[in-house]
## 1
Amino acid sequence: MNLNKLHNVEDFKQAAKRLLPRAIYDYMAGGSDDETALRNNLTAFDQYNLIPDVLVDVSNIDMSVNVLGVDMKLPFYLSPSGGSGLFHPDKEIAVAKAAAKAGIIYGLSTFSTQGIKAVGASSSGPKMFQSYIVKDREITRDHVAWSKEAGYDALCLTVDSSISGNRERDLRSGLSFPPRLKLSTLPDFALHPRWALGFLTSGKFEMANISHRMDALGGGMNTFELAHHLMDKTVTWKDAEWLAKEWGGPFAIKGIQSVGDAKKAFKMGATAIIVSNHGGRQLDSSSPAIHRIAPIRQAVGNDIEIIMDSGIRRGSHMIKALALGADAVSFSRPYIYGLAVGGEAGVTRIVDLLRAEVERGMGLMGVTSVKQLTSKHIEKVSQ
């Protein structure tokens, strides 16, 4: 496929939809329950207008930011996404290499199909590990130790997933981990030979960071069963404090939506808040992340970093988040579409397209650095 003929995230999404079996595409693209949060994440950006400054010299635009202890060339990074081996045989290492080339962070998921150490060794770019506090605390301790050994720059604790969201697309498709060939899926897999060949020749599919636990459970579980066996419903703020101390470096809490929780995250020592509703995959009808940036920034001030995640599809979306008070933004679905379509080259193409959209947008806004974007540049036009 000629990647140069794909000009935005939606083009890549449609290309991925054609290339992937329905069950695999739905796992990537779907949300929970009625997918209200998933839809609202996208449409919420339309409720904000940008207000540009004019007659400004915009011949030199600086898009760099510093977040999570990392100097990044761009105001966005690639957030964690589990199961990348479902989409392309080059898996997470392809994403890590593309991020390194762009000078941005790659966030590796607990549920990655290549391990912490392997991804750490694959590139010299900045990396963050995304952790859960699971029932077996030794697994979490291992992840912290492995991340330190592999030179990861930051740790992120995701806090909105002790219970799995009700992802009905996955229930209908019967998707399990690892995926199993069944009579019901055979026709769909056969109709997507490029994906099938890549998947079947890419080696054993496993959740590399928890493979020993998966082996003990026997494998073949869906997302709900996996969450039930691994996730700890008793996790509290004390556990988050424990993990922050275990790590001892830049530490983000992902899944914050309320002002009260943002204050608690700041009080317990987090260096960053990632405002997110898990891409609409957990609590349906949860507020779009873009709506929560301004009130959280007002509540916590400038002493903690705020990163906006969920719903990013355009450079203008990022500019709106930055104007509302975010220090940076992150996304996963856009680069997963790129991975599915073209491996590392597809991820690079997505990053380049969004880089160009941000740079163009900043120029049209009359700002030459990310820090110049403020509330004067944005207005909310509807509820």
## 2
Amino acid sequence: MSKLNILLAEDDENLGDLLNKFLQSKNFNVDLARNGKIAFEKFIAGQYDFCILDVMMPEMDGFTLAKEIRETDKQIPILFLTAKSMKDDKLMGFQVGADDYLTKPFSMEELLARITAIMRRVGENVEKGKNEFSIGTIKYEPELRVLHLTDGERKLTTKENQLLQLLVKNENEILDRQATLRAIWGDDNYFNGRSMDVYIAKLRKLLKEDENIEIMNVHGKGFKLVVKV
């Protein structure tokens, strides 16, 4: 069974280290970020199955981080950690896409139980291959940045790969244009937007060998990867 890859965002150094060591001892792969901005950069660059986000963090708070994550991944489970127990904070957490909420202080066993319950609830199969996807009839390996086409392998550039990963993660869902620009280019200005349009055109060209695959423009919103059955 492959290990669950967890993104842990916690600015409290002692608690972060404690959670990191505990989760690793329970056979999870853990990537620890000390603030929300670093956590989002790691999220975009990596492949994660689960997010544990502290609410109160410098650079970017947990709620904002969750919103950014949800713009590019609608499915990944998110568990909030907070020192607050106010009803409004919990409501805010669920509004931005949290699967559950854990109020500090908490026991390590309770954290483990929440992770297990969430993963069972969302039906995540931790044994599924995270290193290989099928886009219609085309095999895609994001970690190797490779598309397997009929005329051979095509190595993707870093940005082509990042963009295709986001499209695949959100298949049949609208991928927000501005959020994607911020995630990959760091800024949603006009020039980066033009650059992204060029990459979208390149991906369309690569995927056109399967006529059931389409990257649609959604006017005023973004893009949608549609794979017809």
## 3
Amino acid sequence: MKLATKKIAIGVTGGIAAYKSFELIRELKKSGAEVRVAMTDSARKFVTNLTLATLSENPVLDSLFEGNEKLGTVHIDLARWCDVFVICPATANIIAKAAAGLADDVITTSILATQAKVIFCPAMNSVMWEKPIVQQNITRLKELGCDFVDPEWGKLATKAEGEGWGRLASIESIVQKLEFTLLATSELVGKKVLVTAGPTRERIDPVRFITNYSSGKMGFALAEAAKLKGADVVLISGPNNLNKPQGLKYVEVETVEELRKAVEAEYEEADILLMSAAVSDYQTKKASAKKIKKTSAEITLQLKRSPDILALLGKKKADCIHIGFALETENGVENATEKLNTKNLDLIVLNNPLEPGAAFGGDTNIVSIINKDKQVETFTKLPKNRVAEIILNKAVEILQDRNRQVIAV
């Protein structure tokens, strides 16, 4: 679990988005974090102490004094305990008080008392969000070292408000921010990592296409793992239903040709290439401009080989580390090793989608990693984010070995 052993304090304030703190707590607990909650008096108008305590599995701090006299300075304890303090939702009121250095409730007092990173997740009316004084308070807090997960555009609380800026950021975006804050390292700072993900589509006619079952989850996990190591990340992906990662360059493509052009445009300055996209091996010789009508007769599709992007890049490879992926249902190690050789790869990651726990679209994978010395390392079923971390660690090892060799020379 990514956030195992991490201690996260959540401050819930009095806004309509307070109910979304339930989902945040649930996701953080699922990731292995220990969660404790503080809430303002106004937050109790929107959510209950009991619900927050049940979800976090810890008592909720909701008063500086009343009912807490026997516990001593509980707000100081919370401030000392946490690795990060996230305010979700953060109202204009709590932002203003924090910017002014006030300490008149459990959250503002804890903010002043903690040495941990403080992250605000604003949620409010769009007019309120755009007010200069609110933006000035936010700027002030950023200058003081606080971080923000900015609100999104979307439907607001009431019909009269309609749509606008001020809607609480997605829970996934908030979790990503917390993961980056708690887990980020510097092994790949200054390095560019290029990742491809998802399937490609090749048109048959305006409504039909050739594709595969790839979800893109492995590639997205690789991009996140590279970002956590400090890299400048470019993620090029075919069609998918995943939430777009924050803090990296994202390029959408559909066809093999679009993927080839996008990769070539980014490749020159890349230090690591992770080619996890499931690229169509074949495409139609000529797509029909009109929908092919159903008849009683059978039809034959004429297909041609798609360009092998990774093999083409392998021919002009210099210092970039190339990591490929082999999906095999038989003779896996033999076939993957052949790809390692013919495509001039540093590593190849092998998996079999027929194995339970390694199927398309799942959150886990079972892989073997083969290096240039033909050494095979096989792993048990793991979450894809853990597989991604292992792959990036091996890429870092290759970089470090090269640096040592340069120094030795």
## 4
Amino acid sequence: MKIISGIEVSDKIKSDIALEVEAIKLRGGKVPHLAAVLVGNDGASQTYVNAKVKACEKVGFGSTLVELPATISETDLLNEIEKLNNNKEIDGFIVQLPLPKHINEQKVTEAISPLKDVDGFHPVSLGKMVLNLPSFLPATPYGIVEMLRHYNISTEGKHCVVIGRSNIVGSPMSILMARNTYPGNCTVTLTHSKTQNLAEITKQADILIVAIGKPEFLTANMVKEGATVIDVGIHRIEDATKKSGFRLIGDVKFDEVAPKCAFISPVPGGVGPMTIASLLKNTLLAVRRDA
């Protein structure tokens, strides 16, 4: 069993990006600039956005954090997005989800210019991905693809089972794994909460990507020997033995599943760091397009 370290892969990606940014600066080019919009004071969202800002500093990007109150109206938020769309200094930006309940997340996503949609959630970005045209790939699926590539995990002709059909992870992941490229060329089964006899399906999987949002959902009796398991979930569980008062777990019951796997990604330290690395890669792509 080998651990798929998202920290290791993301550090390599960030190192490569930092070298490219240095080269851009030497030739007097446009330094990439990533902005993040944070609405309200959700603790997990704040932590995640702060990690993005630190990652920008590490690779030499410019970064802007736009902090807005949870009480902001949908109209005012859309106005803030339009300002970012028109700001030539900013190459890409993300609006951190979830948003307060009075704001329509889909309307916000569609308001972001496809040219700056480095999260890869805009319908134009997703449509291009489906057609295998150059586009910003959704950050988390993009990160998973890069993890598979880094560890040279065989995908051609393999059966890939994706658990979860969200527009952010599950659905785009199923499309990427079926593409005629590497990583890809899998036979893909997309499963979800309404799938019957789920364990029978998952036990056939060579590659399992688990993004169902339920703590320790995938157990050892659902996995065949020698499978590759990618855990996308992240959950805070109270733990009095920890200084923070909690620990992080994923959608996979790691301790019992890991011994059956050829490869497995942990939580934390697996997919999480790769999402941020993918945002940086997408932002660099935005600058290259404009160059």
